[in-house]
Amino acid sequence: MPVPIKKQIESLREKLRYHSYQYYVLDDPDIPDAQYDRLYNQLVALEEKHPQLITPDSPTQRVGAKPLSAFDQIQHQLPMLSLDNVFDFDALLSFYQRLQDRLHTEDEIELTAEPKLDGLAISLRYEKGILIYAATRGDGSTGENVTQNVRTMRCVPLRLLGENYPDVLEVRGEIFMPKAGFEKLNRLAKQNDEKEFANPRNAAAGSLRQLDPAITAKRPLSLYCYSTGVVAGEKSAGKLATTHYEILQQLRGYGLPVCNEIKLVNSVEACLSYYEGILKRRDDLAYDIDGIVYKVNSIALQNSLGFVARAPRWAIAHKFPAQEEISKIIDVDFQVGRTGAITPVARLEPVFVGGVTVSNATLHNMDEIRRKDVRVGDQVIIRRAGDVIPEVVRVLPNSRTAPLTEIQILTNCPVCHSAVEKIEGEAVARCTGGLFCPAQRAQAIKHFASRKAMDIDGLGESKVEQLVEQGLINTAADLYQLKVETLTSLDRMGEKSAKNLINALEISKQPMLARFIYALGIREVGETTARNLAKEFKTLAAVQTASYEQLIDVQDVGPIVAKHLVNFLSQEHNQVVIKQLLAAGIKVQNVELDQHHQDNQQDCEFTGKTLVITGTLPTLSREQAKEKLLAVGAFVTGSVSAKTDYLLAGDKAGSKLAKATKLGVSIIDEVTMLKTLG
Ligand code: IVH
User: Fold this and answer.
1) Number of compact structural domains in the chain
2) Which of 120, 135, 167, 385 could form a disulfide linkage to 143, CB 3.0–4.6 angstroms apart?
3) Mean pLDDT across the stretch 430-440?
4) Residue 225 pLDDT more than 90?
5) How far is the CA of 56 from the centre of ligand 1 (A)?
């Protein structure tokens, strides 16, 4: 006999509820999303055919209600309470001692410790297991009816699981937006030029208070339940437990999401160590929290302690230091990073935020300054989360009483006065005095000496750091003035290594043009671009005097790279350093000279050809093979294209080999290469 439609529908609904529970409550999905979607679509199809069988608790009935013109009011049968706060250990200790006094005991009192979620309180009313309404806290006695929005949240069961729940069950909890969802939402808003939310809490509140549930449905809202309100008609099998901790486990069993960080603690010291543990992990949690809530675990003790005003005597919030505070911008300075990136930094009236006093905060870049419209004199929100650099989040609305002037972009580097470049489409402005700028010194010299650049043996990063820190060198050109006596004053540098280094510097004095161009450390001029430039212009002088138009004609050089080149090469400071390098005895090997050199050597099949190297070669490193090929005037590039003449393939060659085969590129191995080179 075929299964009646009604049964089929009910069974699909039950499956969907079960899988949602696995996903949202247990955080342990047991089927892939696509499988869930298939079940869901089957249900939609059946319900479309049999609309009379649709019930409001069906998983398909989450969105659908029409936009409201305003929210109705809902009177809470039991008030929604708030919590008293403490900010330090002493106040926590007093709370605990008050509990002991009131309960006339000197014994330890069992408490629960749980994260204080930074969202908004909600009360969900279930009758006979069906969600009847969801109301915000409001003033504690009357809230707003946000049922149709809460119904769109897939973590909120429209019907409780099982059967053993009280006839009337009000559940209280916190609706929040997980950080990842918040960031995604703001990224989208930014892309669409819409207003961004200041923080996940505001985003959650804004999303829940939408009159159109279709909008709420698209917002990544979550819920954790943390207590109950009215409970009536308990079944003997499903009577609520006698401790807070167990009640939360029961709620989870009914299909309601509960935070899994909740722990039992038996002393005030245990409270503190829980607090410190969570504080350390605060930034790694998927959601924002602003402290810890401790609650007396026994419901009987809770009842005997009772309430004062709007807060229970049996619970307390132990707040974390705020991560956002208000301060005033006194000035804006610009800092130059090691790569020349220029960052505007706000000088602030000192403010205590995230546990420390902050008087500087980053403004990231000029685009951010414009977007946030930050000006000197503004009242701003400062954020310091964990170990992240404090930042200016936004200007306080309406705080500007007098007109303030816009912050202007720098035209010259505050450190070396070279021109500042800001390339269209890039957020970051940069100093173009790469070879000279003291802020970029160490970085530039490290790059200059590196293996693929001037390949100065024995001049590693730490040696460069020391030389720069001790003021022994200011530019790469100064390297060639170093003496053995100076070098031996460095850490772990004996006479022998010093002599070796001087020798290595001597050897480096005859770089090929491509290497020399690469060594200059011009932005976005990597090895391949440097080689193409050398191939095209042949001499250093020609590269130095090339126009923008000539540069963009070079293979691999687009408008941005061409601009970086022009900006760099036109800086007088950089020109001086290049001159000093040449004066120090560097003889750049022009490409014609290379050619001559090769002619003398003997031409070979690879001369003028383009090769790609891939995989592990039996005896040579890829770098060594490349050197050999370059020496006979071949071009070695990184990716296979129609222009590739040969692919030198070693062991474990992967996608490049496949592509070369497809394009019909000649494939050779190391033995063949060495034979051809003679
Ligand atoms: S218990 C009677 N537990 O904090 C108990 N509240 O400052 C009342 N909150 O309005 C609240 N996480 O919105 C409790 N684990 C938690 C909480 C929590 C966040 C919020 C709640 C309340 C506010 C009080």
Assistant:
1) 5
2) 135
3) 92
4) yes
5) 30
Contact yes or no for 314/81 (Cβ under 8 A): no
Residue nearest to atom 23 of ligand 1 (CA): 82
Rounded distance from Cα 651 to ligand 1 centre (Å): 61
State whether 498 and 606 are in the same domain: no
Query: Token pair for residue 522?
Result: 């011009």
Regarding pTM above 0.85, the answer is no
- The 8-class DSSP code of residue 406 comes to B
* Three-state secondary-structure class, residue 370: helix
Around 581, how many Cα atoms within 13 Å sit in the side-chain half-sphere? Answer: 28
* Residue 461 pLDDT greater than 50, yes or no: yes
Same domain, 536 and 624: no
Question: In the predicted model, what is the mean pLDDT of residues 403-411?
Answer: 89
Q: Which residue's CA is the nearest one to ligand 1's atom 18? A: 116
Q: How far apart are CA 529 and CA 470, in angstroms?
A: 34
pLDDT tier, 124 (very low <50, low <70, confident <90, very high otherwise): very high
> In the beta sheet, which residues pair with residue 289?
117
Which residue lies with its CA nearest to atom 16 of ligand 1? Answer: 116
What tens digit of pLDDT does each residue of 601-627 get?
Answer: 566 888 878 899 999 999 888 888 888
Residue 287 belongs to domain spanning: 85-319
In this structure, what CATH number is given to the domain that contains residue 378? 2.40.50.140
- The SS3 of residue 73 is strand
461 inside domain: yes
Q: What is the pLDDT of residue 348?
A: 96
> Does residue 451 lie within any of the structural domains?
yes
Q: What is the predicted pLDDT for the residue at 598? A: 46
H/E element holding 657? helix 655-663
Please check whether residues 194 and 248 belong to one and the same domain: yes
Residue 106 CA to residue 104 CA, distance in Å, equals 7
Pocket test for ligand 1, best of 81, 83, 274, 278 (most atoms within 8 A of CB): 83
Task: Assess if residue 518 is contained within a domain.
Answer: yes
- Residue 211 Cα to ligand 1 midpoint, Å, equals 25
Instruction: Report, as residue numbers or ranges, the catalytic residues.
Output: 116
Kindly state whether residues 291 and 330 are assigned to the same domain: no
Q: Ligand 1 site: residues with CB under 6 angstroms?
A: 81-83, 114, 116-117, 121, 137, 174, 226-227, 293, 312, 315, 317
Instruction: Look at residue 82 in the predicted model and tell me its pLDDT.
Output: 93
Taking residues 618-642, what's their average pLDDT? 84
Question: What does the mean pLDDT of the chain come to?
Answer: 92
The CA 224 to ligand 1 mean position distance, Å, reads: 11
- Domain end marker among 53, 77, 93: 53
**Distance, CA 327 to ligand 1 centroid (Å)?**
28
Indicate the top mutation candidate among 86, 116, 123, 137 to test ligand 1's pocket, ranked by most ligand atoms within 8 A of CB: 116
Which residue is closest in CA terms to ligand 1's atom 11?
82
Q: Tell me the three state secondary structure of residue 336.
A: strand
Q: Both tokens of residue 387? A: 């170990």
Atom 13 of ligand 1, residue of closest alpha carbon: 121
* pLDDT-derived band at 316, boundaries 50, 70, 90: very high
Going by pLDDT thresholds of 50, 70 and 90, the confidence category of residue 145 is very high
Structure tokens at 449: 């000496």
Query: pLDDT of 334-391, one tens digit each?
Result: 999 988 999 999 999 999 998 889 999 999 999 899 988 999 999 999 999 877 899 9
Q: Which of 300, 319, 338 is the last residue of a domain?
A: 319
